[in-house]
Amino acid sequence: MIKVLLADDHALVRAGLKQVLSNAGDMIVDGEAGNGAEVLEHIHNQEWDVVVLDMNMPGLSGIDLIKRIRQEKPQLHILVLSMHDEDQFAVRTLKAGAAGYVTKGSAPQVLISAIRRVASGGRHISRDLAERLVSDPGLSSGKPLHEQLSDREYQVLRLLASGMNMNLIAKELCLSPKTVSTHKYRLMRKLNVTSNTELMRYTWTEELFQ
Which CATH number covers residue 106? Predict the structure, then answer.
């Protein structure tokens, strides 16, 4: 029997998911959590096969919670169940240590299959996401994404994180602003970020340059 910890801050959602999983026959929801603190309390007090984790809950949640769970219980399998499309969060959750990602719009059987797969030590990802993992050596190897950066790209990232604008970076590195812009574009693609805010969040999350 697969022992599942269900974490979602909406009681009605948990009730519905619990009913779906109880019909599977080979799994049991033996614990529920409505926030990150409750998740950590449950994993400290009991052993679980899979934690089905909502990305948005009060307090500690999302990527930070996934990383904390991995620190506390490295062998615990994490399946993210999110309202967000894969393009927005899936890659980051897998990089943080999740074993799979399912959207809340998926059919119940998809969730059941995903739980079975991650409980057995596998990963549950869509075909599109699998192709992205294959094409991204950082994700497929488990190495931090910033280790893919060239020396120059890493320099640009460091200066961006320090608060410099493009013109100042160009002056600092004796490059043209256009060349710096190219380096920034390339490093953002390698880090799977699409905005300056996401770029800064990555440097904070990875504790770079601190």
Answer: 3.40.50.2300
